[in-house]
Amino acid sequence: MNWHEVVKAMLPEHLLLAGMVILLTLEILRGRPRDGFVVAFLALVAAAAAALMLHAEGYAGAPFNGHFSVGPVASLAKFALIALALPVVLISRDDFAETRYYVLLLASLYGACLLVSSDSLPTLFLGLELMSLPVYALVLLAQLRADSAEAALKYLVLGGTATATFLMGVALLYGWSGSMSTATFAAALGSSDTLPVAGVVLVVASLFLKAAIVPFHGWAPDAYEGASVPVTAFMATIIKAGVLFAALRLFGTAPVTRPLVDVLAVLPLVSMIWGNVAAIRQTSFRRMIAYSSIAHAGYLFYALLGAGPGRAQAVIFYVVVYGIMNVLAFTVLPRGADDERSDRLESLQGLYQRRPFAAIMLGASMLSLAGLPPLPGFIRVIQYMFMNPATADQPVGHPRRLALAASLLCLAPAIVLAFFPGWLLDRF
């Protein structure tokens, strides 16, 4: 084994792992809880820089042949995941100081990065579980509401169901082919035998559950609402992107034929419709974002029906734009001591009079998530902020410094991508 190649190919993952080890070591040495923000942020910056460096030099390698490989596109996807986590960590500072929060966040991100480079079904499974398991604890960690425990339990149970479904599908694919390569899944897409088709359907169903595609979406609104704002932002962006990258790794460039093409066409379409329609009825901002993520997951899965060579470009570009605008919404979202009250859409009334910058940034985010105005659902947020007067019991509030920095961190690339989308598309 070439250890130099192992170190270089997995440099982003190693730096995330180093951040976790340092955080845990410092807490053990001090003998008491400590603030893990600085170490976690520096680990993310270093990992993002490493992924960008590997992409810039066009590095390609397979330190674990048949299980883990890296190429320029994979490095770009890892950079996108890690960069999206930076503003999430910035807005986490006011909510979390404990080492355990940042260790769990880095561990989940490590799993998401592992997904991007998986060449075998066991490695893909490991990445999915490393990404998902810490989030079950993150949903419960803040305990801002009485129903946070219920939300975490729903997420855990349904996440376990997705895991079992994925493993059953993998078992069927292995029984058919005798191989654990992700290429087995792509080969099964063109098969008419019952065994591989059943395996493919089970694996796709598990990904649908992880991504909250209708009718496997029931956990998402409760989990998003029950979690803290930073954790909800993390789930809506990094976790969603990780699942789509896993699907991209499985499908590759293989054409999708019937009967799977019907499943990939119908259920994501239902998710688009239901996600947007259900969002209209929501009074909670985070539940509305949950239904937004359900609709956007449908849009993203539709990319798998397109021409194989263009799938990675479509998915990564959409994930970057969607992730930036989603995180931007959470960075400027006003928060108060009463989490349940501040999460209601009514709390945004007159926001422009109280905090103009937050209202403008949130408005830009909502318009972007809605696609083309005036679509139903998300335009309601803009009405509350700009057209409704502020009530007397709503404080003016002041923007948190790190939240302001996080919003600017999202705004800058959003402006660049709005005027120069070709810059990112040309990276493929």
Structure in words:
By secondary structure, the chain is mainly alpha-helical. The protein has 20 helices and two strands. A hairpin with a 3-residue loop joins β1 and β2. The radius of gyration is 21 Å and the shape is globular. The two termini are 29 Å apart.
Content-based structural category: mainly alpha
Distance between the termini: 29 Å
Low-confidence stretches: 374-379
Write down how many β-strands occur, each being a DSSP E stretch of 2 or more residues.
2
Strand order of the largest sheet: 1-2
Biggest sheet descriptor: 2 strands, antiparallel
- Fraction of residues in β-strands: under 5%
Q: What letter string, H or E per element, gives the SSE order? A: HHHEEHHHHHHHHHHHHHHHHH
User: What sort of overall outline do the alpha carbons produce when their principal axes are compared?
Assistant: globular
Radius of gyration: 21 Å
Number of helices: 20
Features of this protein?
428 residues, mainly alpha, 2 strands
Short account of what is shown:
This protein is mainly alpha-helical and 428 residues long. It contains 20 helices and two strands. It has helices at 3-9, 11-30, 37-56, 72-92, 99-116, 121-141, 148-177, 182-188, 194-211, 219-226, 229-251, 260-280, 285-301, 311-332, 339-342, 351-354, 356-370, 379-387, 401-419, 421-425, and strands spanning 61-64, 68-70.
